[in-house]
Structure formats: structure tokens, C-alpha cells
Design goal:
It is a single chain. The chain contains 11 helices and 20 strands. The protein has helices at 71-85, 101-104, 112-118, 135-143, 156-169, 181-184, 215-224, 238-249, 269-276, 310-314, 375-387, and strands spanning 3-6, 16-18, 21-29, 35-42, 45-54, 57-62, 89-92, 109-110, 125-129, 148-153, 174-178, 193-199, 225-235, 255-260, 282-287, 320-323, 326-335, 339-348, 351-360, 363-367. Strands 1, 2, 3, 4, 5, 6, 7, 16, 17, 18, 19 and 20 form a 12-stranded antiparallel β-sheet that branches. The chain has an 8-stranded mixed β-sheet with strand order 8-11-10-9-12-13-15-14, with helices on both faces. β16 and β17 form a beta hairpin. It starts with a strand and ends with a helix. The structure holds S-adenosylmethionine.
């Protein structure tokens, strides 16, 4: 994560625009005075810079929740803020040779909004969840030029590595998304996907709710897969295999192929490591046999003006509201110049979304983007709108 280690944090007048960067506002954690967020705009990207003031160590860095499409924009915003506020930089991992070419100029790194508003539907799509080193998806994309591959990963260094390779190999049929694949699935139109690969997912033995494979993930997979399309799980964890098998077989009607120690065309870094250790590798392939109804999600993320006093909103810190298919939780609360802000998690339990909601006087908006239009998110939104009305 790009960051500046600074001597002392200094606030500027907000809003302020300079060198193509706009600093819109500052939000201060109401319960932890050492945390502040600065709302930034660079080109199309809107995100937060995070100020963390600790004893002997003050940091200015990018906020994990609002990651912009281009890391170059974070570099630009960090250096620009330091200049405008006259911060003394003690150390930094921001490259000084300005441009990070392959990230700034690639257009195959897509934002979630791209898929939400404009999902490519002109050809068969194949999705790889958690591509890691990218060996498998790069190989598949090179072998199948007529198919559109979408690689989803949350680990930035892996993403950068794959983007470099897409550039070098001049692949024009591979799009990359830095996002939680479990949420992404809800945006995919029905019946357009040929294959979904989930190779060596993190088993999360101690935190099963973080697993990629779940009943709702399989439901979404069945909806988006064409007839004859497959979801391919490959794992070295016997425990994860057993859990997944149970989850797949719990469906009333399903077709599964199980393999042990099957070789596939390209073996990933993980796979090589497990093979050297003589570990078993389990494959569960689910074949979809049914055409699904089109994806229609009704509802909006509009807010009525907030009537709950700002002081009462700050008291929501730590509050959780639950409903059948999901929840709304107030993780953190902040004060801003004209109001308050909350960091919330919302939606379904196994695919929660984390984001911010800004209350400026009585005008309420999500920041920087709307939640994904899923049924559970829309339900959480209704609760949030209600709560902000006292
Ligand atoms: C153990 S690695 C396997 C990587 C690769 N598939 C392979 O076989 O080498 C699992 C990868 O999944 C990614 N990952 C975990 N949860 C994810 C999620 N919800 N959405 C997207 N990627 C995820 C992790 O960042 C990690 O790179």
C-alpha cells in the first residue's frame, strides 16, 4: 500500500484543487482522534486518503475500502497533499519517477462500475476467481482468443503482475477486476458464462464466512452459467473439499464430477508447491443443466433528507440491524465540516459490502460509489434510510 511516513500531519482548507487533484473534505473519526479521512478526486477516481497519527509514527496512506482503479492516482494524491500542506516526509514507498506506466495506461483494469453499467455480453465469458500469479488465466486467454476472460483478485501485487503480462503478451480478451468476487457475481447477466474457475481458494478454516464457495455463490454461479457451463473448484485442502462437496450436493438437483489428482493444462504456483509436498488435489466440477431467468433487481439507493440529529447518528457506532437475508452495521462514525459520516457494512452475511455514507447537513449520499444493486443491499439500504429518519 502506498504511504508517506510524515513528521506531523497538517490540515489544509477544504475544498482545495491543485495539479489535477481535488481535496474535497476531511472526516475525523468521532471515537479515535488519531484517524482522519481526506476525500480526494483525481480524474474519474474518487477515494479517501487515510491519516493515521500514532505516537512517533504519522502516516498518510490510501484507504483500503475506497481503492481507486489506478494506484498512480493514489501516488499523485499523496504527493500533492504533502506539497499543499507542507508536510515533512520522513520516508515513503511512493515511486518518485512519477508514472507507473502499466497501471495508468492499461484499460483492461476495470472498475466494478464498468461491469455494473456495461457488462460485456457480445461473446462467451469465462471468470477466474482469485487468479493469484495469473498463470492459469493468462494461459487460457492466450489459447482462447474469441472468449472474454474476467480475472478477479483482491491482492494488488498479483493484479499488477498480471497486468504487466497482459501488456507484454498483448492480450485483448482479458479484463481484470480488483474486487471481492463474491459480490461481483450478482452483477453478471444470466446464462452468459461458459466457465468459472475457483482454483486453490483460501480455505479460511477459522473464518468460514470468508470462503468463496457458499450456497449463495453456487446459486449465483448456476444463474450466470450457460446450459452446459461449469464451475470448477480445485483445492489441496481436504477440509475445504469436504465442505464444498456438502454445499454443492445440498442442492435439490445438481450434476457434479469429482476428481482426485487430475492434471490440467497449466499448473499454478500453488499447485506446484502442493505436488512437491505430495499433497492430494481435489476437483469438484459442477455442470449447469438449466437455463435461468434474466437478472432483474428492482429498487433504488435514493435517500430522503436525514432528520435524525447528527449527534444521534454518531451514537450509532457499533449498532447492527439484522433482517432475514442480511444486515446493516455501523462500523465507524466521523464528523465532517457540515455533518457526519459513517463507515458501514451491509448486505448479505456471506457477501457483505463495506462503504461510507456521508450526511452533509441533511443530504445523505454513499461515498464514493453506490452499493452494488443486490437484493440484500437494497434491503439494508431501506433500513439505513429508515434509521436516518429517527
Ligand atoms: C491461494 S491463492 C490461489 C491463487 C491461484 N488461483 C493459484 O492457483 O495459484 C487464492 C487467491 O484468491 C484471492 N482471493 C481470496 N478471496 C477472494 C475474493 N473474495 N475475491 C477475489 N479474490 C480472492 C487471494 O487474494 C489469493 O490470491
Amino acid at each position: 500500500m502506498p504511504h508517506l511516513h510524515i513528521e506531523e500531519f497538517k490540515e489544509i482548507e477544504f475544498p482545495h484543487a491543485e495539479d489535477g487533484v481535488t481535496f474535497d473534505f476531511i472526516a475525523k473519526n468521532a471515537n479515535h482522534s488519531d484517524e482522519k479521512l481526506i476525500g480526494v478526486k483525481v480524474d474519474e477516481d474518487e477515494f479517501f486518503l487515510l491519516v493515521k497519527e500514532e505516537e512517533n509514527k504519522n502516516l498518510l496512506k490510501s484507504d483500503k475500502l475506497t481503492r481507486p482503479a489506478s494506484i498512480f492516482n493514489v501516488h499523485k494524491a499523496l504527493m500533492c497533499y504533502a506539497k499543499v500542506a507542507g508536510l515533512k516526509i520522513l520516508s515513503s514507498n511512493v515511486p518518485t519517477n512519477a508514472k507507473n506506466m502499466h497501471l495508468e495506461e492499461v484499460d483492461f483494469l476495470k472498475s466494478i462500475e464498468f461491469f455494473a453499467s456495461n457488462f460485456p455480453q457480445d461473446r462467451e465469458v469465462r471468470i477466474e476467481v482469485g487468479f493469484g500469479s495469473g498463470r492459469h488465466i493468462l494461459h487460457q486467454a492466450a489459447q482462447n482468443p474469441d472468449i472474454l476472460f474476467i480475472g478477479i483478485e483482491i491482492h494488488r501485487p498479483s493484479i499488477e503482475q498480471v497486468l504487466k503480462q497482459v501488456n507484454i503478451q498483448k492480450l485483448d480478451n482479458l479484463l481484470v477486476l480488483d474486487y471481492d468476487a463474491r459480490l461481483f457475481m450478482e452483477l453478471v447477466p444470466s446464462n452468459i458464462v461458459g466457465k468459472i474457475y475457483v482454483h486453490f481458494p483460501v480455505p479460511w478454516d477459522k473464518k468460514p464466512h470468508r470462503r468463496v464457495i457458499s450456497t449463495s455463490f453456487i446459486e449465483e454461479a448456476r444463474r450466470v452459467l450457460k446450459v452446459g457451463g461449469t464451475l470448477e473448484l480445485r483445492t489441496d485442502s481436504e477440509n475445504y473439499y469436504a465442505y464444498s462437496y456438502e454445499t454443492f450436493i445440498a442442492f435439490h438437483k445438481t450434476v457434479l464430477h469429482i476428481n482426485k489428482n487430475r492434471d490440467i493444462a497449466i499448473s499454478s504456483k500453488y499447485e506446484d508447491r502442493w505436488k512437491k509436498m505430495e499433497k492430494n488435489i481435489y476437483d469438484v466440477t459442477m455442470i449447469n443443466e438449466e437455463e435461468s431467468a434474466p437478472l432483474i433487481v428492482e429498487g433504488s439507493f435514493d435517500f430522503a433528507p436525514a432528520t435524525l440529529p447528527h449527534a444521534k447518528i454518531l451514537e450509532l457506532h457499533g449498532v447492527t440491524k439484522r433482517f432475514d437475508a442480511g444486515f446493516l452495521h455501523f462500523e465507524r462514525v466521523y464528523t465532517t465540516q457540515n455533518g457526519v459520516m459513517a463507515r458501514i457494512s451491509m448486505g448479505s452475511y456471506d457477501r457483505p459490502e463495506h462503504l461510507y455514507v456521508v450526511i452533509d447537513k441533511n443530504k445523505v449520499s454513499y461515498y464514493p460509489y453506490l452499493p452494488l444493486k443486490s437484493r440484500a443491499n437494497l434491503e439494508s439500504h431501506k433500513i439505513l434510510d429508515g434509521v436516518l429518519h429517527g
